[in-house]
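User: I'll paste a sequence; please echo it back and then give the predicted structure.

Assistant: Echoing your sequence first, then the prediction.
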Amino acid sequence: MQVKSVKHLFISVITISMILLISGCGKSGNRFANRPPTIEITSFEGWNDTNVIAPNDTMTFIFQQRIYWHATDPDGIISGFAFRILDENGNPISTRGYDYIDSTGVLTPENLVTTLGTGWVIHYMPGADQNIPLDNPQARRSIWTSQKYAVINFPAADAQGNPIVKFSKFEVVAIDNRGDITSEPAWRDFRTRSDRPKCTASTTKGNPNGKDVGSGLKLSFSMKDTDPYITSVPYKYEFKLMKLNPQGAVVPGTETEWFSTTGESNRADKINEYLLTKYTQPAITYDYVEENGQPVGLPVTKTRIISRVMDMAGVLSIPDSSSVLAFYVCPGFRPHTFIYPTKTYALTNYHFEDYGDDNSEEIKVIPKIISEGTTHFAIPLFKDMQGNNTAVYSSNIKLWIRWGWWGEYVNSEGVSYGDTSNLAQIPYNKKVDVLLDSRTGKNYFSEVTAFDIRLDGQPYNYPPYPFSQYGFTDNDGTKWLRLPVNSPLGQTVVLTSSQLPLPPATEPGEHKFEVRIVDLQDEYDPTPVSFTFFLHRYIEPANRSGILVIDDDVTSNGIDNEKITDQYTSMLSDYDITGTVDYYTRSNASFVDIRSRALAFSDLQKYKLVIYHNDNFLSSGNLLKDFDGLSLYLMRGGNLVMSHTHLLVQQISEIAKGGTRKTFVNNLGFSSIPQISFIYDNMNKAFFQKAIHAQSGYSDMNLQYDDPAAVARICDLRDGLGSLSYFENSNFSGEVLFKFGCKPVTATVCPPSAAFYNEYNDQKTVAFRRTTSSNGKVYVFGFPLSYMKVGDESGGSRQVMNKIISEVM
């Protein structure tokens, strides 16, 4: 059975082979011949002779058409497409957007030239340098493209730019991988039109509207087009310039030809802008008589500019009031430069804050680093006691300096150019980028083009912009680095240890940064702004010496401020014999930084002990402003004595800010959300007469009143003090130093109740001491030390101060 099946199969194969052989007889040709591709247009607009879609053959289309096509190859693959546009006479033409065609056939295969001719659109080849124009033989170019569609801007204008209906033809062919081209192109005819566009002229900084302008401005144009369904895109703008006499007539010989924004003379980077200066083509000239760089009298002419726009169909606008500018070119305008204090800050191991709120808009832009698990934020430089900008140096220093110009920002209430100080201090308002004249404050419709910068008497060193290419030298020999406005630096330099070396051991390192604005006139700020700052070496706690007494008491009726100072001088008289005691009156500080701080860490770090007192119970003092420097001092091993009143809770609570600013508060010995107690109705409960010592080596301190007279008159009247703070044991971290010494219930003047006496006397803590994590010591007195007797049979405040000095020195 199996043998029979094999025989049948063999007979079938032989029979089929014979049939194939017979059917092939008489045939000729190459069985490997290539078959050309075919192509068709798949979009619906337009018409041809085989596929007329009524009423497309009579319809007028908008000039811009998106045309899709599809090609197939039965025995290969499609490798490219070529297309062209023909006019009503069948001649190839370029269109706006496809401006270059192969008119000579140099890029067109011979077989395509033979069958269909030349005029195919030229394209860049993949990876070609598109800065080389397509009409340059050096460009890598071809008529072939991989596009599957094209956006064609068919012409719809006559030679004068007037809108008319025009007839055009679109043709497209395909080429396969063996070089064969479609035998017949796919094509569509179009009858197209375009509305006349409208041109509006202004400058990049607004319409001068007959005002004075500087000798450098950028014209700015826009087009309004009513053609439906397409995006309004201009092909080019044109303008001409002329001078008018005072009667409004054109001065003969001053009217120029039309200049195009696409011409080689345009130094602006955009098709809708054109830079005009005294040195451009065309140039603008002054309308005033100039004398010593300033205008004299009234203008003698007016400058007028007439503009127009051509759309992608070749239709020109007609000049009207919107496309005409008139202004007076005036000499003497110069920019004015600012350095913004609120955007100038430093960050080192010894100059930072650690309480920045990341949700704050200001904090979001402030630089920060993570150090020892804590976020350190950059802060503005301090003002020291001499009024210098200071920071304490470390090798990882970064110092940001941000500059700007008058008119860059306005306040939120509206455009206000007059408040120079406000605009300089607060660069977080609305940014408008107006450029105002340094002398008059007028907007002169110019732009910033560059920044001249120097550091420490030399042109700023910025390797990507070497001085050899970007240097500028003044007539007096002063050298600057002139940075373009769009350089990577922008408006900020970040100075590091490469530019800011380690300061000398004996004195701070002085540095000076200078900057000035350059405008479109090629004029610069005649008064460059500078920022001078001093960097100090860090002083280790072991190398510090002396005492600094900070007087934060304001002058008030009923408080003898001179006696407060005398009391501290007497308290420290024993130490003053051998050591140095410096006094600083905070309320008289003429030098405050941008945060209104008057205590700089560079000053504080020099001293072994800092004594801060706000002993005026009528004022809470400036601790809230000054704690930045004190906080850094405590973090770096500083020793602090704080003397305050019942108002201490107000200052400490505001500093803590709900626990978000905790470092300084914790170093004082309080929790992140501090709890400090005080006596309500303290004027009528002036029952404090003594500080009872709680540690060996310390003596009691008696309140001074009557004889000699008290520092505060209320103490003489009440024989006691009520304006003090006390600390419950659970609300501070440290050792109890003194307790409340209460007036006896038998006192003849304002005696306390027995209940009050029993609750407070020798029970409430009024002073404590603690050791910080950096091995510094903090002494917090809830009562004013200057109100206590300096020396008596109990010991007094001098003995207490001597004891404190012995513990920290």
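The chain has 14 helices and 49 strands. The two ends are 121 Å apart (CA to CA).
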